[in-house]
Amino acid sequence: MKTTTIIIAIITALTTMVFPAVKAPADVIDRVIAIVNDDIITMKDFEAFVKIDKQTAFTSVGEYLRNEQVKNRLDVFIEGILIKQQAKKLRVVVTDKEVAGFVEGIKKQNLITDSELREQLRKDNVTYEQFLEGIKLNILRTRVMMRVLSTEVSITENALKSYYDTHREIFRDEDFHLQQIFISGQHKDIKERAEKAYRQLTSGTPFPDVARSISDDPSAKQGGDIGFVKRSDLLPTLRDSLNNLTPGSFTPVIPTPYGLHILKLIEVKKSDILPYEMVKTAINERLIMEESNKRYRDYLEKLKKSSYIEVKI
């Protein structure tokens, strides 16, 4: 319900990308499948981190091991081991307390309890231990990168303007015609109210009817209709929630500093291209991210070349 989209995104970023969870076929016999410097990877080690499509049927162990998806996941797994090895060399550590603090931040940001988080992880076939390990490795990786790579990324004004000129269309604003159900954070039973609203919507109750009976927003009298709103004027969390929405559909419950929201998209209109000065900071952040990712990939490739890696599948 309310946390599905947000938590799945978190899980994907922190586990699937780093340590994808899984289950290999029952007939896979434990064996050494790779050697990374002084670390040996067995099939049992690996199968805890690989996610194979449940609908895929492997007729033999050989077919399973030859599967391209498995090989791609093994590359990711090996990269994680290399980062751990480098962290050990550099004496970079991440404490359980730091990981716990990160998890608490996730729960507060998404207004969920520990049991709700664990239940969502269970639904996504990710164990709590794998979730924590994914967080730990991400923090570890960031600290290793800060030690071995220059954290200074300087983007020139010319580069920013060039990117803007060649990608103008992606900076075209949009006008969204929206309906909203808003539950104020002042309610002690805020979660119960939001869950009730979402339940009614998913059972087919018209959005305006739910808005009139539950929403705290002044627009409740109009069935939650807030008219057209520019994408650039929305809170980032609300803006992002509309990315995959089609007219006529509504979002899950979205937490913001003000309370909980459910948005329904009625119509989308293309608007003007945003001026350079308004998107300059966003362009700078995007280019810094691209350059940082490139440096990270380059570092990993050098690490692989200087390491002893033997893959036996």
User: What's the Cα radius of gyration?
Assistant: 23 Å
Largest sheet strand order: 4-3-6-5
Overall pLDDT score = 82
CATH architecture verdict of the largest domain:
Orthogonal Bundle
- Counting DSSP E segments of at least 2 residues, the number of strands comes to 7
Largest sheet: 4 strands, antiparallel
Portion in helices: 40-55%
| Poorly predicted regions | 1-28, 51-59
CATH topology (fold) name of the largest domain: Triger factor/SurA peptide-binding fold
**Element-by-element helix/strand order:** HEEHHHHHHHEHHEHEEHE
Total count of helical runs of at least 4 residues: 12
Termini gap: 41 Å
- What fraction of residues sit in β-strands? 15-25%
Helix-and-strand structural type? alpha+beta
**Name of the CATH class of the largest domain:** Mainly Alpha
Q: What is the 3D shape? A: globular
- CATH homology-level superfamily of the largest domain: Porin chaperone SurA, peptide-binding domain
Q: Any idea how many domains?
A: 2
